[in-house]
Specification:
With about 190 residues, this protein is an alpha+beta fold. The protein folds into two domains: about 120 residues, no CATH class; about 40 residues. The chain is built from five helices and six strands; from the N terminus they run ααβββαααβββ. A three-stranded antiparallel beta sheet has the order 1-2-3, with no helix packed on it. α4 crosses α5. The protein is globular.
């Protein structure tokens, strides 16, 4: 039997991650590329000319048309953070790599921050991931099926009639090659 192409797809190793995002400057540049892939654009007036304001931890981009200032973290879950971007990026990596999730306690140990800080990071990142997931719309070829989620207790009725099981509907969007792109799971009403 062959290996599953999805299960064994190439990931980002910790050494590769550190090489790409190991410094504040690398993290700030990555955020700038994501936020403004075609160069700076003012959120207020859409201006493209800017000056840099230094003296703070992160560079501030000041629009030359309206004077509005922004950083690469403005309007994100990292806005006004005092934590280094390297800690945020490592938190994103650790939460994204964990197959069965990661606890806030384990995250605090891995990041070297207090438990309360790790809990806040964990909570903000998971909430942002959930909001992004809710914004996806299934398109193209979609496969739908219903199922039951939950286990059986020895005294309960087995199968579909078990009071322990919750009916769900699962839908998967497939690409042209028939590989899953995105899935949505909802309770069956």
């Amino acid at each position: 039997m062959g290996r599953s192409a999805i299960q064994f797809q190439k990931g980002l190793s910790m050494p590769e991650f550190q090489k790409l995002y190991g410094t504040e400057a690398q993290c700030e540049e990555a955020l700038a590329q994501i936020r403004w892939p075609d160069g700076f654009r003012c959120a207020r007036c859409e201006g493209v000319l800017y000056g840099l304001v230094y003296g703070r931890r992160l560079k501030r981009y000041q629009c030359r048309q309206c004077g509005h200032q922004a950083t690469v973290t403005s309007g994100t879950i990292m806005e006004a953070t005092k934590l280094p971007l390297t800690i945020w990026f490592l938190a994103f990596y650790l939460i994204g790599q964990a197959k069965t999730s990661i606890s806030s306690l384990q995250l605090s140990r891995q990041l070297g921050v207090a438990y309360n800080m790790a809990w806040m990071l964990h909570s903000k990142i998971l909430r942002a991931m959930s909001e992004r997931d809710d914004s996806y719309v299934l398109q193209g070829k979609v496969q739908i099926d219903d199922a039951y989620f939950g286990g059986e207790r020895p005294v309960d009725k087995a199968g579909r009639g078990s009071e322990n099981k919750v009916p769900i509907v699962a839908a998967i969007s497939l690409n042209a090659a028939g590989h899953p792109i995105h899935a949505k799971i909802s309770p069956k009403l």
